[in-house]
Amino acid sequence: MFPFRTSSIFRSRWMALLWAGGIVWMAIDVAGSPPAGGGNPTTDVSGAPVSPEQMKQTEKILEKLGK
Question: What's the rounded Cα separation, in Å, for the pair 59 and 63?
Fold first, then answer.
């Protein structure tokens, strides 16, 4: 997975910083940033926006399942 042995990552401070920077970069790339619209970013499987009423219905169903 790595082009070098993982035991040698932390032998050098600079190598450790590069490794940590790569992990942070990957996390930002995977997680991304929130939508710029500021509206309701919640969508269903098809990508259609979910209304607050639908969210409340889902919360009620999940509460019943937890009991």
Answer: 6
